[in-house]
Amino acid sequence: MSEPKAPTPTPGDTYKGWLFKWTNYIKGYQRRWFVLSNGLLSYYRTQAEMGHTCRGTINLATANIAVEDSCNFVISNGGAQTYHLKASSEVERQRWITALELAKAKAVRMQAESGQSQLGFTEGVQSTLRTLGSKVEDLSTCNDLIAKHGSALQRSLSELEGVKLGGDTSDKIRQVTERATLFRITSNAMINACRDFLALAQAHSKRWQKALQAERDQRVRLEETLEQLAKQHNHLERAFRGATVLPASPSNPTADSPGKGDASDDDDNEFFDACEDVQEFITIPADPKYHRSSPSPFFLLRSPQSQEVVPVRKRRTRIPDKPNYSLNLWSIMKNCIGKELSKIPMPVNFNEPISMLQRLSEDLEYSELLDRGAKCQSSLEQLCYVAAFTVSSYSTTVHRTGKPFNPLLGETFELDRLQESGYRSLCEQVSHHPPAAAHHVISERGWTLRQEITVASKFRGKYLSIMPLGSIHCIFDKSNNHYSWKKVTTTVHNIIVGKLWIDQSGEIDVINHRTGDRCHLKFAPYSYFSRDVARKVTGVVTDKDGKAHYVLSGTWDEKMECSRVMQSSRGGENGTEGRQKTVYQTLKARELWRKNPLPEGAENMYYFTQLALTLNEQEDGVAPTDSRRRPDQRLMEQGMWDEANAEKQRLEEKQRSVRREREREAVRLASTAEEGAPQDNYTALWFEQVVDEATGEPTHIYKGGYWETKEQGTWENCPDIF
Q1: In this predicted model, what pLDDT tens digit does every residue of 447-492 receive, in sequence order?
Q2: Of residues 362 and 217, which shows the higher confidence score?
Q3: The PH domain covers which part of the protein (predicted)?
Q4: I want to staple 36 with a disulfide (CB 3.0 to 4.6 A). Which of 15, 110, 289, 412 is the partner?
Q5: What per-residue confidence (pLDDT) applies to 329?
């Protein structure tokens, strides 16, 4: 097709047109739309991209323009930016060279004038400031004189009032007149000085406003240039990664050529290397047509939160630093190999000053992911946010090698963040053997979360395995979508020798019981020999028919991203044990979640997050069974570990005594029953056991009444556990 004839460039005009730009040895020259404006040469894939996606920009003020042949020319800024360009004809090339030279000359001239203007502006400001300073000193002097003469005038008036009419009357009147005249003269001088000051300020205000606007414009240009540089750097990195996995085309040589080794800056997608041990699929860029017709929905979903300012309680940001107490670990652990962790008497030296109920509440650190999910129109998009929330709950554990306190039977913990985050959370220890905690969260932003977790743990000598049992459920009010999933295994390594470190491994299936949608997440275990990134998590979101719609990737300690799947196909037999891997063609990844930075000094505060620092903060009105009221935990937080150990033993013995009494009562009741089998008659206060309709598992669900009891302050039914 013939192109419209470009206008002859003139100084100051914006010049636009098509040129061919060298990208790499695989793609060669690619047709791009170039725009020359304000001394900057920018390019786009198409004219439609001009409003939103610039592919690169070079500043002509510092650039070198060189002609190679009748159609080719090169623009370079002497650094990392070099554009090898080709026009459709020699005439077209000459038009561009003329336009570029004119724009470069103008940019150099403006840069020089800007420097001179800046120097003149600085000198002018200094002179004006000196003048204004002098005027301010005049005003200060006048002020002192007015105060002095005003006081003298007041004294004269007072004396005049006490003088009897006689010979000295005329003298007093004359004194008052003289002082009044002096006061009027000084006041006039003050007024004149103020007028001069005002006139001077008004005269320079417009000039300063103009100079300020020029500085703002220059800053905007610098910011735009930096943004373009960042984009180009990002493109180069991605092109480099792509070049390491893409085979060379038979029709394109792979030998280096001086001056044309530019990495491709036109690749919008990432190539994920095939993982030999973990990943069961490969993602590759989708066809460009999908980018034009199917924008990612996640850009639209990430709407800013409400800007309404609501006064909220100021919560603490620090706790006392962790003391440095030594302890012979092997003397305690050598007789515990193979036993359950819940049955091992542990000193507080291994703990962190929060309970397991509070640790469970930390899953809400990133509750905003569920807030976003509640706004989704598509259940598949919603599932992506639920999956990201699932992964985010592990981000708080990466440095947390301390063991939370085992809750006492009947212990509770409330987390009322209705004002800050729109939810209320309640946990209760509903069983002691096996230890089980029930958790219920209700949010004003359209979702409910509930779970019952039983922790099974084994000490294996070198490492400690923690296996959470039970399911987590999330129900969204608007769509009635009901999701459930389980937790993966947590492993604490180097228990006896070396530095403790934590790993998460296993697989999770997040299931939508209403639609049949599913997200399969895989937490890769750490391996010294693996070439993959540590703590890697991958996942695929599929519908009820097994068709993939989204691919998730990231790490459980940093971030999760999501890519929309456009097409999928089976690859060769390069998976483990000869299995075929699925190849997904995806759009560019969008970030779903990123970990918040730890507070300053977190390494001295058990590596607590900002939320964790507030969990054990004293609050009025909580139940007498609340973890905040637990004395051994409070003593440990305050650094009194010996006292905390003694108090911990007292509480555990009290709990054993109550349990023995309850068992005796159960035996007595069983002796009068027909079955004759003793049953533990303990029932939870705020939760009741039912069979879950979605999973068929027995679980404890919230039966209500806690928050109403708190409002009334009637805690008579709570057991005395502390």
Answers
A1: 999 999 998 887 776 788 888 999 999 999 999 999 999 999 999 8
A2: 362
A3: 12-105
A4: 15
A5: 56
Average pLDDT over every residue of 520-546: 89
Cα 125 from Cα 300, distance rounded (Å): 47
Q: Shortest CA distance to 692 belongs to which of 508, 386, 446, 451?
A: 451
Backbone angles phi and psi of 332, in degrees to 5: -90, -40
**Residues 160/169, Cβ–Cβ less than 8 Å:** no
SS (H, E, C) 262-327: CCCCCCCCCCCCCCCCCCCEEEEECCHHHHHHCCCCHHHHCCCCCCCCCCCCCCCCCCCCCCCCCC
Strand boundaries in 471-555, DSSP class E = 472-476, 482-485, 489-493, 501-512, 518-523, 536-542, 548-555
Cβ contact 268:588 at 8 Å: yes
Token pair in block for residue 717? 């039914």
Task: Using the predicted structure, report yes or no on whether residue 12 has a pLDDT greater than 90.
Answer: no
Angle between helical axes of 169-245 and 90-162 (0-180°, round to 10): 160
How much is the pLDDT for 245? Answer: 37
> 521-525 contacts: CB < 8 A, separation 24 or more?
521/387, 521/390, 521/391, 521/552, 522/278, 522/279, 522/280, 523/488, 523/556, 524/275, 524/277, 524/278
- Map tokens 């206008």 to a residue: 7
pLDDT in tens, 400-448: 888 899 999 999 999 999 999 999 999 999 998 888 999 999 999 999 9
Residues in the chain, total: 722
Do residues 58 and 75 make contact, with C-beta atoms less than 8 angstroms apart? yes
Instruction: Please state, in angstroms and rounded to a whole number, the distance separating the CA atoms of residues 405 and 627.
Output: 10
**Measured CA distances, 76 to 63, 110, 124, 387, 553 (Å):** 5, 20, 38, 46, 37
* pLDDT above 90: residue 594: yes
The C-alpha R_g of the chain, in whole angstroms, comes to: 37
Adjacent-strand bridge partners of 698 = 691
Residue 453 is inside which H or E element, if any? strand 447-459
| Residue 32 CA: distances (Å) to CA of 44, 222, 290, 609 | 6, 24, 19, 48
The mean-pLDDT minimum among 30-34, 322-326, 538-542 falls in: 322-326
Of the given ranges (113-127, 282-296, 577-591, 597-611), which has the lowest mean pLDDT? 282-296
Enter the tokens of residue 467.
């296996």
Q: Write down the residue that tokens 């914006």 correspond to.
A: 14
Spatial separation of the C-alpha atoms in residues 622 and 620, rounded to whole Å: 6
On whether the CB atoms of residues 535 and 501 are closer than 8 A, the answer is: no
Tokens for 253?
Answer: 């040589």
Per residue in 544-561, pLDDT tens?
Answer: 999 999 999 999 999 999
- Which residue bears the tokens 């989204």? 550
Longest Cα pair distance anywhere in the chain, in angstroms? 129
The angle formed by the CA atoms of residues 651, 656 and 662, to the nearest 5 degrees, is 125
Nearest CA to 607 among 616, 615, 598?
598
Q: Strands across the sheet with 40-44, in order?
A: 56-59, 40-44, 28-37, 15-24, 82-86, 72-76, 64-67
pLDDT at 701 over 90: yes
Which residue type sits at 622?
V
How much of the chain is in helix, strand and coil states, percent to nearest 5? Answer: 40, 25, 35
